[in-house]
Amino acid sequence: MAVAAAEAPRDGQRIGSALLTLLVLAGALAASAQAAGAASFSPPAGCQMTMTVQNRSCTVSQYYTCSADPEGHRRSAHFGQDGLFHLSVIDAETRWIESQSTGSGLIDRLVEGAADDASFTELLETGRDEFDFETRTDDGQSLRHQGFDILTGETVTIDGQDLERTEFQLTTRSADGEVLVERSGSQYVSREFGRFFGGIETSSDWTGARNQTNDSPVLFIFPGEAGFGSTTPQFDCDQLMTQIPQERAAS
User: Does the keyword Signal apply (predicted)?
Assistant: First the structure.
């Protein structure tokens, strides 16, 4: 589904253990990257990397699984020019189980018992999946996420991988119902990998700020191939650098 990073990801009784797990993973990943000259990393002990994806918007994503996780859970780590910025855990239905912004350190965790859980199976079988679920940060903030994903019927091939284009809409509200973020646009899904990849989307927040991004995948890199595990983004980085002074000047 529409993951906050972006992949934007995605039990009060287990927040403490979840926080420790993600912080340990974040530390291990960062240490591995530093040990390799900030160029590559290996996942922590007990985890196995499966794929590296170079994306537009100057990001690169690492996908891996860990033996200690419940069956079907999969992890990802996302890097920009300044290093690791997001960690995410999804399940087999692509529900947002846990996500962490390494900048804030906050962990956002799925609240079980959703009004309508996201379902990758339903999307593939019917062409549409609606969702209505809540997440809670470890500082106690509750967020409600409502929206839908639909298959457009268009199939594209990117770097040898067959992907199906989706359209999505996502509204995130605070506990008192205030609209905090609205996102809409397109993404890609892979039946083979059982997950979403980024695309072109527009977002707006409660301040009125609007933003358009293109996080589409460009390269899929697998074990044994050049660039596997690289934490250095390859695409659109020069473009982002030229945009920074303009954005600062405008503000």
Answer: yes
Neighbours of 153 (CB within 10 A): 8
Instruction: Place 211 in a pLDDT band, splitting at 50, 70 and 90.
Output: very high
Buried/exposed code over 173-194 (b: 16+ C-beta within 10 A; e: otherwise): beeeeeeebbbebbbbbbeebb
Cβ atoms of 155 and 123 within 8 Å: the answer is no
Q: Was domain 47-221 assigned CATH 1.10.10?
A: no
Contact yes or no for 114/134 (Cβ under 8 A): yes
Pairing of strands 179-190, 217-221: unpaired
The answer to whether 133 touches 111, Cβ cutoff 8 Å, is yes
pLDDT at 48 over 90: yes
